[in-house]
């Protein structure tokens, strides 16, 4: 079977393998191969591989079968992986317990199983969890070379946005001023800082800010990350005209904070505006809201319109990369 591989010189092989493993990009269904002085590492999503790595397609050798939860259950359960935790979304308590037992008995490197016990709720967008295995809801997640500690019961975090976060982070240039209006535990701010940006991250959730500070320390960027607990509408005037880049990852209500985004924007600022809209016009509402907030003080140019993922039937999670320039 033809499979995407990263091809790298053998002397760079182990370092590259670790980087891909940290980003959760290695395809464990296929063997790593060596040929003619090159190492071939199978990857699950070639589009998410860093641009400085070469991706090739070649025949892949399937690994010897490892025991999966599906092998033990007789059906393929739906779950997400986050660090050494598996996250379930099962309404039936008995089915959830059965899946948890199979996960622990399988060869997955997992010691915690959590089942969603509520919808996302409140201003901080957290949910309740049933702990089916493990000690608590705290996990350590690795993503594109960064490490994030977080407690799923007290902060919001979505592993599904890893590729989008990486896309934005790759645009960072050394010395930038980056302002994350809804920073959470730092999945944007930390990789920004690792690429040389000076970052300010704001969040109304005090627990998220504590984890942001901890994650800055874990990743060696405490000197480039300022974590601020508070409502960004109150904080923004303290950073008037400061930002070269602003991240607005609050898709359901980012438009309510555009005045603050314009406040912190410098003379030439790139705004990453995440939104959820109907598939018939996924980008129009966001662009109109941004223009209403920024013009005529800024010239507004939409540089990128990107569909991040499907969110619900006929609804899309999208991002507009918008340049704000003072005339």
UniProtKB/TrEMBL annotation:
Query: What superkingdom does the record give?
Result: Archaea
Q: Which UniProt keywords apply?
A: Cytoplasm, Methyltransferase, S-adenosyl-L-methionine, Transferase, tRNA processing
* A GO MF label: tRNA methyltransferase activity
UniProt-listed GO biological process terms:
tRNA N1-guanine methylation
Gene Ontology CC: cytoplasm
InterPro entries associated with the record: MeTrfase_TRM5/TYW2, SAM-dependent_MTases_sf, TRM5-TYW2-like_MTfase, TRM5/TYW2-like_N, Trm5a/b_N
Q: Name one Pfam family in it.
A: TYW2_N_2
Residue intervals of the SAM-dependent methyltransferase TRM5/TYW2-type domain: 79-326
Residues annotated as transmembrane: none
Q: What is this protein called?
A: Class I SAM-dependent methyltransferase family protein
Q: Species lineage, top-down?
A: Archaea, Methanobacteriati, Methanobacteriota, Stenosarchaea group, Halobacteria
């Amino acid at each position: 079977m033809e499979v995407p591989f990263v091809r790298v010189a053998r002397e760079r092989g182990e370092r590259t393998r670790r980087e891909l493993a940290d980003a959760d990009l290695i395809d464990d269904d296929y063997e790593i191969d060596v040929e003619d002085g090159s190492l071939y590492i199978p990857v699950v999503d070639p589009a998410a591989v860093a641009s400085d790595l070469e991706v090739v397609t070649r025949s892949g050798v399937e690994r010897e079968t490892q025991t999966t939860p599906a092998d033990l259950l007789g059906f393929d359960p739906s779950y997400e992986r986050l660090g050494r935790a598996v996250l379930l979304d099962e309404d039936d308590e008995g089915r959830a317990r059965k899946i948890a037992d199979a996960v622990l008995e399988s060869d997955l490197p997992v010691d915690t199983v959590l089942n969603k016990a509520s919808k996302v709720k409140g201003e901080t967008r957290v949910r309740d969890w049933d702990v089916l295995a493990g000690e608590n809801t705290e996990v350590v997640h690795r993503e594109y070379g960064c490490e994030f500690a977080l407690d799923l019961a007290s902060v919001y975090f979505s592993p599904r946005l890893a590729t989008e976060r990486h896309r934005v982070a790759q645009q960072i240039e050394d010395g930038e001023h980056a302002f994350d209006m809804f920073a959470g535990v730092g999945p944007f701010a930390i990789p920004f800082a690792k690429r040389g940006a000076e970052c300010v991250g704001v969040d109304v959730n005090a627990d998220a800010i504590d984890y942001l500070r901890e994650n800055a320390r874990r990743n060696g960027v405490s000197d480039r990350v300022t974590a601020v607990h508070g409502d960004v509408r109150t904080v923004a005037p303290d950073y008037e005209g400061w930002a070269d880049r602003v991240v607005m990852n609050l898709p359901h209500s980012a438009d309510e904070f555009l005045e603050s985004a314009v406040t912190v924007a410098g003379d030439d600022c790139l705004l990453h505006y995440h939104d959820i809209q109907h598939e018939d016009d996924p980008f129009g509402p966001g662009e109109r809201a941004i223009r209403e907030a920024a013009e005529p003080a800024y010239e507004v140019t939409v540089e990128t319109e990107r569909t991040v993922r499907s969110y619900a039937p006929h609804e899309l999670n999208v991002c507009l990369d918008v340049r704000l320039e003072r005339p």
